[in-house]
Amino acid sequence: MPVPCVRVPTEDGEATRRRLADADLVDGDHTITGEDGFLYIPVTDPAAVPGDLAVVDFDAPERRTQTNPADILGFEPSYERLGDVVIVDEDDPERAQRIADAIVQSDVRARTVVNRASKIKGTERVRDWDVLAGESTESSEARRGLEDEQGESSSTETVHREYGCEFELDIAEVYFSPRLATERHRVVEQVDAGEQAFDMFAGVGPYAVPMAAAGADVVATDINERAIHYLRRNAERNGVADRVTAIAGDVRDLAGDYENWADRVVMNLPHTAEEFLDTAVALAGDDCVLHLYDIQHEDDPYGPAEAAIREAAEPAYDVTVETHRSVRSYAPHELNVVVDARLTRR
Whole-prediction pTM value? Predict the structure, then answer.
C-alpha cells in the first residue's frame, strides 16, 4: 500500500534522512527504499515536510522488527555514527561498555565502537579514544606503519558519506564533525564553477572536496599532516584531484604564494580563527566572500566576528555582511556561529 515518502537522489539520501529525523518526521514502520537512482524516505506527516523536498506516494515495504540498543539496555543511549564507527560519550566507563556491547548485539551497523577519552587538544585538533568494541587500538605511529606495510587500516579509520562525497579518515588522527554537514552544504551551494577558493583549516576536505566538485579551483591547508594525507586521498576518491592543491603547514607561512588570489575563503577554526584574519585578507582578491566561524556568548553572537573582520579588512576593502547565522549550540549560553562577509577592494 503506498505511503507518503520524500523522494531524493541517492547521493542526497543520508543528509536528507538526517534532516527529516531531526524533525521527527521519518516513518519507522516502513523501509527506506532505493529505486532508479532515487531514495524514498517514508514520512509520518507529509504536510510538515520542508517545502524544498518532494513528497510522493510510494509502495515502501513495512519495516521488519529490528533490535535497537535501547531494546537491550532498557534506556535510550546517546551515540552517533561516522561511517561504520559508532561514537559514544560517557564519563562512566562501565556504562560506556554496556552501551557498546548493546550496539554490537543490535542491528546497528558498526565495525568499531569508541568512547571519547579526552577533549580536542593541540594544534592538530585530535582527541584520544577508548575502543570498546572492534579491533584494539595502537599508537598513531604504529597504525601508520601497519597501514603502510600491510595495507590494513586501523579500527578508528572509516569512510563517511555526505551530500554525494566520500571522506576517508581516522578519528584518532584528524578532527571531523558529521554534525556540520548541513552547514558545509550551505557554503558549497554558493560556489560557482571557475572560482578560486581557499580553505585555511581544511582537515580531510569536507569543504575543499565538494567545492572542487562544484567546479572551483581549491587550495587547502592544514597544520595536521595526516589530515592533508587523507584530503589528498579524498580528492582522488571523489575525482577532483586536478582541482585541489593540498598543502601541509601553518597557513600563515604558506599564504605568500596566494596573495590577492581567492574569490572565497573558508575559516572554520572556531575560538581562534580571528587570529588569522590578516592572512585571510592577504589571500582575498578584489571581490571575495569570507566565511568566518566563531564561538560566542548568546548575548552577542555575531558582533565580535563582524568587528574583527572590519578591523582586518578596512580601509582596503568595503565590508558587507551578507549572512550571519547560528550553526549549532556549543555549550550552555554559547553558540557556534558563522559570518559570511563580502570584501570588495576599494
Answer: 0.76
